[in-house]
Every structure is written in structure tokens, then in C-alpha cells.
Design brief:
The chain has 110 residues and is mainly alpha-helical. The chain contains four helices and no strands.
Length: 110
């Protein structure tokens, strides 16, 4: 269940962050609602996850995967295409997430 809660936290945070631009500084109602509800859900499920996973590992997975998903959302929603250095940097982040998930004993999975 911990990975399900983490996934819900990541998706909620991705939705909230993706709507930040559309909220125009919280001057537009519905995008602002998505931001507030998304972050509330994200932090709620993140708080459940850190009860059973180390906070550093949880945050690394949450932020790393979230960065990539928000970037993908930015491509489709706002036509903000990352350049090669940004793509390389995100590839390194994903590699780090994979190393943590596959090889770290601190996740409690191995």
C-alpha cells in the first residue's frame, strides 16, 4: 500500500503543480481549486507514506518522479519543451530514482 499512497501523492502533486500556471497567481477560480486540492491530497498521502518509508527515500521518489511528470505536463499543456541539458538532467534524476528503488536497502523492499 505504501507505493499506492506514494503514487497518489505524486499524481496529486503533479496535477496541482501543472495548474499553478493556469491559476494565474490564484486569480482564476477553478485552476486555483485544483492547485489547493491537489496539494492537500499530495501532502496527506505523502504524510501516510512517510509513516512506513524513510522520509529521505520517500521525498527522493516523490520529487524525482514529480519533476519528470510536471515537465511532461508542461510540454502538452503549455508547449514548454525542455532543451537537451534539461532532458539529460531529468534522465539523471530518473536514474537516481531507479538506483534507489532497485538497490537501496533503506526502502525496506530488499
Amino acid at each position: 500500500m505504501k507505493y499506492l499512497y506514494l503514487l497518489i501523492a505524486i499524481i496529486s502533486e503533479t496535477v496541482a503543480t501543472s495548474f499553478l500556471k493556469a491559476s494565474e497567481g490564484f486569480t482564476r477560480f477553478w485552476p486555483s481549486v485544483f492547485v489547493i486540492v491537489g496539494y492537500a491530497l499530495a501532502f496527506f498521502f505523502l504524510s501516510i507514506t512517510v509513516k512506513v518509508m524513510p522520509i529521505g527515500i520517500t521525498y527522493a521518489l516523490w520529487s524525482g518522479i514529480g519533476i519528470v511528470l510536471v515537465t511532461i505536463a508542461g510540454i502538452f499543456l503549455y508547449k514548454q519543451v525542455p532543451d537537451l541539458p534539461a532532458i539529460l538532467g531529468m534522465s539523471l534524476i530518473l536514474a537516481g530514482v531507479l538506483v534507489i528503488h532497485l538497490f537501496s536497502k533503506t526502502t525496506g523492499e530488499h
